[in-house]
Predict the 3D structure of the following.
Amino acid sequence: MTKNNAAADWWKQAVVYQVYPRSFYDANGDGLGDIRGVTERMDYLAALGVDAIWLSPFYPSPLVDGGYDVADYRNVDPRLGTLEDFDAMVAAAHGAGIKVVVDIVPNHTSTEHEWFRAALAAGPGSPERDRYIFRRGRGEAGELPPNGWKSTFGGPGWEPVGDGDWYLHLFAVEQADLNWKNPEVREDFKRTLRFWSDRGADGFRIDVAHALAKDLDSRPLDEWPDDPDQGHPGEENPLWDRPEVHEIYREWREVFNEYEPPRFAVGEAWVVPEHQWRYASVDELGQVFNFELAKANWMADELRLAIEDGLASAERSGSTTTWVLSNHDVPRHATRYGLPQVKSETHHQLVTDWLLRDGRTYREDRALGTRRARAALLMELALPGSVYLYQGEELGLFEVADIPWGALEDPEAAMSAHGDAIKGRDGCRVPLPWEALDETGAFGFSGPADHAPAHLPQPAWFAGHAVDVEEADDDSMLSFYRRALALRAEMLTAARSTELSWADGYDDQVIAFERPCADGRTLACVTNFGQEGVPLPAGEVVLASAPTEDGTLATDATAWVVR
Ligand code: GLC
């Protein structure tokens, strides 16, 4: 297969596969996926044809938020392996021509981090507390929170520590927000970036990249309403997407550029499309997630807008954009597309309600969801920029909606009890099925040793999506992903062009565009959202998500036509 990995800008049109380590493959049989599990399955990743893997956090962590509560940034969680296991994994990946991207979580540490323990011990006003965001509570003895800000996961955003001080946590109580005005914090993260770069990491995914810079000092905290966006017109939000955050990434760029080739970074910034480009500019992170595809319904107008936004942001940043259908934070797209499609503002609520009722409120049409997921993949892979795949989507997995409440791990499930209950994100984090028939009952997720049960329960229907079943079936989602990735690499990525022109002559129920191929021909990508068949342009159909007949593309299908 053609590899685009040799060039320094390999990441500009890469296919990056997100590994959620605790649920990928469990080599030691303790029920939790591990680093060795990734090494042992490197052949699978190579056969899939991905350019890079991004590993969600594998650092020591109390696992309150699936590892996004980091207790030690420069180590491996003993349950997931050792630093030597990490080195072996990197060597195996590089041997297979696969780059390695690690996750950096700079907005908050776990409350088990040595800095936070030191902050508690040192008391109010200490330099140790200054690494975090501690403020005096209101009331005579500080018994009331500094203001009414909420955590993203639900409930209050401030937690008292018993001496009149409260600390800010935009996420779980066990995730204390760092103070990025503190020079020690800034230096320590640069040390972490160098630590993993020196160990062979090719790049970084930056968690909650839009929250690091905060301004709590410009006005008294109790002047802010609970939702700071509803606050003072004309003033920047004190917590999110502040202009000063970009200074941090300009400093980081200098660190990335100390390496040859420069280390790559992609920011997770849930900001409006007009603000994405700055994070992605070449003197900052270089790339930022564009979540517009993941937010859009299976509707031509929403998806077209998502594509236009991504392309506009790429043009403005002078970089490339990214395309994402699923990740570890959103319900799987094969399910989203199989539920009733209503405009995006209400669709999120519809899926949330559906999950809350264990998948029993609306009918999930799995055949339809699968058909659309295939069509979406071909459309996504034909776009210029990088594609981020989330583990299990290549198996066509659906969201697991009926995990019992007692088995849920996501802090959202527990914290949302403060307001409207939500089930959270575990339904897309269930351990992968590798073998349909496996006497341990874990679908081959766990290696030979102890066979502890998988850390989240797998449903019986996973058997039909197991890797061994799909490998043996030429029509499976896995076989389709392999074909599509191979063709993309050979025809599109190798052309190294980001040109895209919209194709004319279709109605608004069709998304059609053209891209230059490596061999000088042109690839037309046509997706039909309408009820009627659509005539395909003249040329050779090199791949289609559903059979095409007499040059006609059926509903909910995509075809690649080359001429
Ligand atoms: C990011 C992660 C998410 C995590 C949150 C807090 O959004 O993707 O999984 O819960 O940050 O770290």
About this structure: Residues 65, 68, 105, 171, 207-208, 268, 328-329 surround alpha-D-glucopyranose (CB under 6 Å). The mean pLDDT is 95. Residues 300-317 form the longest helix (18 residues). Residues 4-111+179-482 form a domain with the TIM Barrel fold (CATH 3.20.20.80).
